User: Fold these one by one.
Assistant:
Number 1:
Amino acid sequence: MTLTLRPAIADDLNALDALEQRCFQSDRLSRRSFRHWIRAQHSGLIVAEEDGQLLGYALVLLQQGTRLARLYSIAVDPDGRGRQLGRALMQAAEDYAHSQRRLYLRLEVRRDNERAIRLYQQLGYQHFDEMPDYYEDHEDALRFQKRLHYLPQNAEQLQVPWVQQSTPFTCGPACLQMAMAALGDYRPTVTEELLLWREATTIFMTAGHGGCHPLGLALAARQRGLNAEVWCNQRGPLFVDSVRDSAKKAVIETLHDHFVAQAKAQQLPVHYREFGADQIDQAIAAGRIVLVMISTWRLDGRKAPHWVAVSGSDDECFYIHDPDPGEEQVPLDCQYVPISRRLFGQMHRYGQAKLKTAVVLGG
């Protein structure tokens, strides 16, 4: 009998559901979830079949706009164990991620699953993080990753704690809290997040509450004892082209003028030119944290300004901490996210005016 590895189809639904019940006592994928992943784009559900019997599966998710893939779940039928099926499914998962030009494949595994951990280590996966109380029964998860494109690794990763924004409009304050936690003895709170937003916001934006001005973020950081400097390729009021109402434009312009005056009074360094890849590398090498405004178009299809924290770099990628998991992601997918340098350059601009701005922070 020959083992076949192939993409899952709708006719596999009953067998997948039954396999899940046999393999796991908790943290099971539902029948509805399997139906979704069979149909979904940006994912690969691979099944192992022998003589018409489904013996295992591997589910790989692709994170849009990045070079990252995640092994979301893998299962081998108890009757099929001891026959290298897990190894075969892992190879199929890597082949799928590689075919989609993903740079890393990441996974989570129970701390007490020694057999699976040995397999991942044998296949070249490196332990890089852990998540306490991750599973339904409160067991911890260990995080592993493997680089699928074997290039020299010279990443300089910064130890940047990840902070999730608590509102749709506080990405900037959440990123600033990441920097404060990385650069000093600081514990982020929701109250501080909202207070930071009050200090740094433009009040209005494309819709709803406004986002944070780079000068506003830098001034708030300076107020809390950090060294800060701003890079911006525009001198005039920012974001005014994102609103139509003249009264709202006037408010944005008033706040911009206030931030400029405060920056001048406090001798805050402001560089009116682009902050490119070389400058990001230099800042990271110096142990500084870089907050960058990006357009979310290549992440979620929406043209919205969004602050992220750069958490590392190497010859091929920049790594970001994204404070917004969105609707389909989990926090694990938003930390040390590898984005190719070319794509990052395309994301690091916003609006018709192609605004490029960054806030560089040090202790």
Number 2:
Amino acid sequence: MAFTLAPTAASDGYRLEALDTVGSTNAQALDHARAGDSGKLWVVSKNQQSGRGRRGRAWQSPPGNLAATLLVVADYELKLASTLGFVAGLALADALDAVAPKGSISVGVDGGGNFGKGGSNRFELKWPNDVLASGAKLAGILLESTMLDEGRFAVAVGIGVNVVAHPDDLPYPATSLKKLGATCDAETLFLALSDAWAVNARLWGEGRGLAAIRNRWLERAAGIGSEVAVHIDNRVVRGIFETIDEDCRFVIRDHDGGTVTIAAGDVHFGAVASAGAI
């Protein structure tokens, strides 16, 4: 099966560049933006060789996994672009629901599952940019941007999914769709993702529908009400994960009863957070 766009995505004006092999789909998309591409371009591959994660970390992606980047070119307020990661998380979770087999998924030690809430979501969203299953990282989202002329900017919304394999040498649990029992391939998942993105992007509406996106995200959020530790630069903030605010920042209730609002950081839930292991 070849990569293809869902009819909803094609009708909304999205385009597709499918590559047999790529260094980084994000880098490829941003190169297109600098060369004048107008955006709404998906760059996809199942053989990404130089993927990146947050803070310059390597993203390991053996052949068969999905690497997909949507290029967005815009001139609206730049801070709104950061919320595209939440649109991407919802779109991916919706796509996974569509292609993965039904059944219960347990929560691992650092999964940050909805403790005490029945675990109704098989795929949960971990702030700011991970998708979890079985309490382990299944997918990551990375936003990268560059300024263009005439006040415009480009954002590469990168999505990497462990479809057939996952790395074993990580400081946190990881999993793959294959390990979870799913039989879909990268092409099938992308077809569903392109459809789900079109739906969620309409809801987001260049930020006008951010409140609705926030509400949907919270319904899938991992770890609300649980112990959390957030690593911010050279310090760790601990408390209870309470919510995300109207700008999608992470809100913790600390042990003194006050709230701490966090714009960026590495989040740890469950036993890892409680044990003070970071």
